[in-house]
Amino acid sequence: MQAQCIPGFGTAKCTPWTAGRCTGAKAEPASPALPIWELVWEDHFDSQTCVPDTSGTLRPSPEFWSPETGYKRGKELQWYQPKNAECKDGALVITARRERQAWEKPQGPQCQVVNWDSIEQPLDNASCAVCAPPYFQYYNPCDLVRNDDSGGPACDCSESAEFTSASLMTRGKKEFSYGLFELRAKIDTRPGAWSSWWAIGDFDYVPWPKNGEIDIMDAFQRMVKASVIHSGESGLPSSAIQHAGARMIDREWEKYYHTWQLEWDKDFMEIRIDGEAILKLDLSVADPKRTSWPNPFTQGKKFFMILNLAVGGHSGGDASLTQFPTQLHVDYIRVYQKKGTT
């Protein structure tokens, strides 16, 4: 009631004003509502969640994470093993190490059969050789699992591995759909080092790429990349469709921790680094009318996370150019779900 509207100083638009009432031009619409996020899970990789092994070294919580063992994918050079991941100074540290030089020949066979009953399927050291470099065969017999609770491959090629590293997954333990996913990490993208934080659909035995893939952090060769992958019309891996965005970085950038986020709604995904969006995708691009297959990113389908440091492979680059070890440091991972809007 006591306000005055004086033309000038940017207030001329208020000229048709009377006491107690604003009768100016039609009001502008309010800004879009903002989501209200509720924390549903987090891992700070400290003594509250990590657990000591028999030697007293803190390891990632088995309640959240399952370590992978062996050569897994992408023609990568590293043999994954649990001991390359430890919780140290309040962070998860995954270390990739050079175990021997490429020209050093391992004594004895490349791979050895461990905890396998050959009555079920004949298996010997010679037939396991295809699981090691340079072949990297991933199907039978390399996908056979030991007859114990370790989850390791029956074809053990660890003694002949040139590099070792670690990969952790939340499959069957922590799986999520829509929400806000956040990681704070420090990376190394020298040639050969390939840090990743990604999610894979886990539903109805649907194979890749029909189950969908979300690469939130893909860091290699001075680049940080984000991508979303789904099936093409044929449904075959060779016709997978990738939507991606990336930015270049330098060694100074890698000295510090940075934050990656995935915001995933029923209609879109947006992946950000330090608050800057590098990929935003309308999820209708994966609808059946475009791909002939069900959209893996809608209807609340569950995805599990993988956190790993690979060596070489399709994207990592030439590891011979880098002095190892190299490390991936992860301060925390948090998952939020929307409980409403402002």
UniProtKB/TrEMBL annotation:
State the name under which the record lists this protein. Answer: BglA protein
Q: Which residues form the GH16 domain?
A: 114-341
GO function term, MF aspect, one: hydrolase activity, hydrolyzing O-glycosyl compounds
Reading the lineage from the top rank, the first entry is: Eukaryota
**Pfam families, A to Z:** Glyco_hydro_16 (PF00722)
Q: Its family?
A: Belongs to the glycosyl hydrolase 16 family.
Which InterPro entries does the annotation name?
Beta-glucanase-like (IPR000757), ConA-like_dom_sf (IPR013320), Glycosyl_Hydrlase_16 (IPR050546)
- A GO BP annotation: carbohydrate metabolic process
Task: Write down the PROSITE patterns for this protein, in alphabetical order.
Answer: GH16_2 (PS51762)
